Amino acid sequence: MNDNINNPPVEGMDASTLNAVNSPYNEVYVENDEYDAGTNVDVEVVYLTIPTKWIPVYRKLLSLVANGGKAILDDCNYGCKGNGSIVFNCWNIFQSACAVHTEGKEDEAELFINYVSKQIDAYNKSNSININDSNFKYTITPDGKVKADGVIEDNIVSLSLDKENKEAYDNYQANKDNGKIYVEQDNN
User: Tell me, what's the pLDDT at 100?
Assistant: First the structure.
């Protein structure tokens, strides 16, 4: 498929061919979020998307950044040398991993996340830091309404929902894909 070709929505199509094996149309799913690109919005937060399997690295990174907070205030050069440089490099590379993951560049994302994980582990070992952070709560829907209880054991993440959050999550799942459109197939 040639990604450089814009396939506009089809008008006046023959609906009887939609489910045919050799249909001339591709099905495209879209979310009906009632968003008008010309409307400004005032939101309280935006979400960084972190793959679930990266949560153990993210939790270690948060601990590392939180522990460096006082040192950052005490020394304005903290981020430029030694341990501070490691902390800030890990944070920035983690952000890069999330960005390239969002762009679908999985090999690069895995390279970055593995680098960050190894740097944090080496930093913690050399500074005799032991992180015992196995229980946490995470927002798992874009609207921020569903919170999951999480546990990390042997770098494996398990998320669970109480009854109220399970109902809210089921409602979110049922309504997240509100519509679809069709475009002509790209024969290139």
Answer: 94
